[in-house]
Amino acid sequence: MVFAWKSAGLTYNRYLAVAARAVRRSLKDGPRVAAERRGNMDLRFAKWENGKQGEVKNLAEANDQALAANAESK
């Protein structure tokens, strides 16, 4: 038996993110605001070269820049 999220082409992590967002949006105003704050993530990464850490970047900003650069090149 294939899971619905898998047959839809989603990873399990993406499936959980979509489900969590749906639950947060279904809450009443007070609990929804608190839940949405907990749902925000601030992920950072750094590229390592020759054993040295490069510049630390915000993942969301880097992703937005890559999408914009990809859209311009097409």
UniProtKB/TrEMBL annotation:
GO cellular component: mitochondrial inner membrane; proton-transporting ATP synthase complex
Species of provenance: Aspergillus versicolor CBS 583.65
Any single GO BP term: proton motive force-driven mitochondrial ATP synthesis
Lineage top rank: taxon: Eukaryota
Homology family: Belongs to the eukaryotic ATPase epsilon family.
SUPFAM superfamilies tied to this protein: Epsilon subunit of mitochondrial F1F0-ATP synthase
PANTHER family, per the entry: ATP SYNTHASE EPSILON CHAIN, MITOCHONDRIAL, ATP SYNTHASE SUBUNIT EPSILON, MITOCHONDRIAL
Family annotation (InterPro entries): ATP_synth_F1_esu_mt, ATP_synth_F1_esu_sf_mt
Protein name, entry field: Mitochondrial ATP synthase epsilon chain domain-containing protein
Pfam families: ATP-synt_Eps (PF04627)
GO molecular function, one term: proton-transporting ATP synthase activity, rotational mechanism
Signal peptide: none
